[in-house]
Task: structure prediction
Amino acid sequence: MKRVISWNDDLHGNVPDHSPVVLILVDVLNDLDFPGSQSIVRIASSLSGNIARLKKRCSRAGIPTIYVNDNHAKWRSDFTAVVTHCRQKDVPGRALVEPLLPSPDDYIVLKPKHSAFYSTPLDTLLSYFLARAVILAGITTDACILTTACEIHVRDLKLFVPSDCVAAINPRMHKIAMELMENSLGARTTTSSRLNLKEIAGDKQLNKEGRS
Result:
């Protein structure tokens, strides 16, 4: 059952259809108003463009998108409030947010900490999807992305982290985090344009195994 939403509605949906692969976007709806964020603000347009193109390709390949976003300790806010704030004209992260607004077919999770799994329903959501692989994108590479990647790895899910769809405050820390994910977590870190999404989504092994 597909959800019908608008920006005046509560963005909570129902259990999804099955899919062996999902795209998880971490903290892409972000005001980028934090210390050291200038380096990400400078590349916001290119980063969001890469992620938006990847998301569009995933949609065409039948791969659903899950937004997992920080609530910034504002416990009374909902996802609509987060999006509304990030779209204001004076917000540094507006260039990142505008091309990446969720569509009615996307799924929404709010997180309180770095990991996309900690105190969130993401694990349950992936179980209902019967997901066996995750394409991970967003910010920042050495914090929320790396923490989430570790959680994906310990769940025995295949991991893809397109190198042009993640970013960090410090280029050196970005490089270290990417190497850690590739060497220690088995992540595939090719650029998004080189990901063969149809091949990934059609992987017979992924479809065969499922999650128990």
